[in-house]
Every structure is written in structure tokens, then in C-alpha cells.
Amino acid sequence: xxxxxxxxxxAPVDPRGPRFSAWITTAILAVVLLTGxxxxxxxQTVLFGMCAFISLKLNPWGHVYRFAVQPRIKPTTEREEAxxxxxxxxxxxxxxxxxxxxxxxxxxxLGVVATSAALVAALLNAAVGLCLxxxxxxxxxxxxxxxxxxx
Amino acid sequence: MTGVWALLGAVAVVAVIAVVLRARDGRVREAKAxxxxxxxxxxxxxDPDAAVTLVQLxxxxxxxxxxxxxxxxxxxxxxxGLRHVELDVTDLPEVAADLGVLRAPxxxxxxxxGAELLxxxGVPKPDALVAALRPHLPGPIG
Lengths: 151, 142
Known about the structure:
The structure holds 2 protein chains of 2 kinds.
Chain A: H1 16-35, H2 38-53, H3 60-69, H4 82-104, H5 108-128, H6 132-135, H7 137-143
Helix pairs in contact in A: 1-2, 1-3, 1-5, 2-4, 4-5
Chain B: H1 2-24, E1 28-30, H2 40-43, E2 52-58, H3 65-78, E3 82-88, H4 93-99, E4 106-110, E5 116-121, H5 126-133
Parallel strand pairs in B: 2-3
Antiparallel strand pairs in B: 1-5, 2-4, 4-5
């Protein structure tokens, strides 16, 4: 289930779409680290939030994937559940929000650490296909029950 | 400058996690010594007629559980004495904690009496799993 119980349920997706999005997210977070721009990180936070709390359909990179990439590669019948993806976006949202607050208030160290953590998760997803938040959900559930409460 | 170092650090961390994961994922591991007895929701799933029951622990947020299910259902269908059941532990965190399970999917191989033979984290490799279970199974692979 998504973080927000009132949100619509997304249909299963082509697993290569999220991988493609994760590469772009990684690039954005890398630029944030290099420039320290809180505005860019704030924009990424909004994107994470929309995907996690409203619908994955709001992810612009998903549309780019569908129109520019998917027609050029071999189709696949493989499908991935949307719930883990949205949970992962929620984890990204928490880190990106923390980072934005850090950079914007002058707590640069906080901004750097939170952005790096988000970048690790995004790059793992892009390069290895691993959803860290999903695998570690049980761990989160045990040590941070409030964060990982299923709805 | 801090940003450059943070970026390099993050990439290094990802590389380490990727290597560790490659090495561990889907590998058969030894059973964990357990202080408490088998949790009731798991015990209820044991099949007294099967030599080995594979209990797959899943969550609703698990990305690879679908794949693990396909592998294990296929195995249970063609290996005599092997059964596969799935337990959703999303709302049973204490069961996962009692079993020492931190990630999903994790698969436990249990005897009818509830003794753990081995466990696999991630999507199991079918050949290695059957080879490890061979001494506990009745017939040859059908």
C-alpha cells in the first residue's frame, strides 16, 4: 500500500521505466551536491512527493521513457508492482526534504549528508536495480515503526 | 569542494553495497540458531506430509517477492517432497524479528517438525537450493 491510503492505486509498470527515472534522479542529485542549490533539491523533493503521495503517473521521466525510450527497445512482459516504487519515492522524499531544509537554512553539512543518502538509494536503484527501502522495510519497521507504518 | 567528495563517497558506497549484494543474494545460508520456538503463524503453515516446506517471507512493499515466488513455485511443482508457502509479514514484524529476518524476500527451509535446515535471502538460485536440500528430500528430481 502507498504511504497515503487515500491515494489512487497504480497499475504494475514496466520495471525498466523506474530504472530510467532513477538514472535521471541520480544526475539531478549529483548536480545538487556539486552546486549546493537548494532550489533544485526542492524541485526534486516536490517530484518525489507527487509520485509517493499522489500517483506515479505524475513522474515526468516516466512519460519521457514511454514516448522516447520504450518504443525503441524490446518489449517485456515483466511487470513490477507499483506499491514498492511509491514507498521508495516516499523514502526519497524524506531525505530530499531534509536536505532542502539543510541547504536552505545554511546547515550545509545536513544538506550534503541527506542528499548523499538519497543519491546512494537512487544510484543503487538505477545501476543494480535494488530498491533499498523496499528490501529494508522489515528493518525500518522494527527500528522506526512510525516511518514504516503500512496504511 | 565538499560536494565533490560527498559525490565520490556516495558512488563508493554504492559500489561496495553492489559487490556485497552480488555475493550474498540468492545464496543458501546456514540455519540461524534460534532461542525462541518457531512463531505460530509460521508453524501453522508447515505441511506434515512434505519433507521440506519452503516458507517465503514477503511484504507488500517487496520488489523481488514476485520473482522469488515464481522460482519457488516452479521448484515445488517438480521436486517431490517440496512445498512452497508464502507468508506476508508486513503486519507481523514480531514474526520477522523472532526469526532474525531483516529483508524480504527471505525463504526458510523447514522440516515437518519445524527445524530450520537453511535460509535464502533474496531471489533463490533454484539449482543451488535443491542441491543443498537433496539430503532431506525423498526421490530424485522429477
